Amino acid sequence: MGQGRALGAGTAGTPKGQRYPWPLVLAAFVGVTLVLTAVVASVDATMGTTGNTGLHWVDGWFRFDSGWYWAITKNGYFYAPGQQSSIAFFPVFPVVTRALVQVFGDRGAAADVQVVGQLLALAFGLASVLLFGRWVWDRLPRRSAVLAIAVILAYPYTLFLHGTMYADGMFLLLALSAFMLLDRRWFLAAGLVGALAVASRPFGVAVAVGLTVRTLELLAADDGSDGWRGVVRAIRRVRLRHTAVLLSFGGLVAWMVYLGTTFGDPLAFVKAESAPGWDQGVGPHTWFKVAFFGALAQGHWRMGVNLGLQALACLLVVLLIPRVVRKLGWGYAVYTAVVIAIPILGTKDFMGAGRYALAAFPALAVGGDWLASRPRWVTVAVLSLMAVVMVVLTWYFATDREVS
User: Fold this and answer.
1) How many domains in the chain?
2) CB–CB of 247/194 below 8 Å?
3) What is the extent of the structural domain holding 141?
4) Is residue 99 part of a domain?
């Protein structure tokens, strides 16, 4: 990996004069949103709405974790030891939602909280895809960048960016922003935005780790060093201004301080995730996926396919990490590795791993780069299959079947 690859920035990958086609990316995102919204609206109209607005095209998206974020925005956090509790959900998204509800609605009105939350999540989803497109446009050859954008638009679990009241779009936007700021050598800004990312999702600490390694990688490039040995040697070049990226760890620290002072346990979110029903505890039962293999052994084929798809997403991300190192550098690779290690080690059956893999945006980018070197029919087949699976998963999601 040469110095330019280590930096992973600049416009060397895209032919000069080729501007980023953000209007086309915007139109594509809107098109996907309309298709998926038609799916959830038709299901909600058939089953009967479970939301607060009475609008099928809105309430059809209001499922599962949307209810938790809605309740946190409306009523705040609670913690009941040994039971599922809202403190399992990190604070940035509900805090921002609550602030907007105070401005544009009534926090006491259930429908207002839901609409603001879903619109905010949709806006973050759109912004994250647009920013992802900008990011790959500057770092990959033109065909690779176009296909990387196609990958994130067609990736099945991207459905959670198109109308659910979930925090995935916010996290993706913050993580991308933090790395892009760092690539511009804006260390303090990267650290502050990184802190928000860390405080927005349980696996957000991956951003802080990735930013730290990426900083060393940039310093190594200044020295003309290359590879992981150069990253290690760059520690001696660290100055005070570079350490500002460590502020990103403050997002987790702040959340733990809040939990400690409010509920008496700074690790309450970990214990809440272990509660019956979620059962995401730490130990061999989780590490070795006893629940996953148990579902397969008992012949629960629908659940097996569901969980198997998410396990496959994890596997593909892992397989793409060496390509992330070559194309984007060690900082992005370490971030990707930590993001995907958390669902691999921390979920009992891979449930949720599909959305976790969405956060591994460097893997999605180099996935597009991999497709760029394949025959056209392979590219069309892969993207078409992904899009079909997305529509199917959206239908299942709308019918109150957990998909991730």
Assistant:
1) 1
2) yes
3) 3-398
4) yes
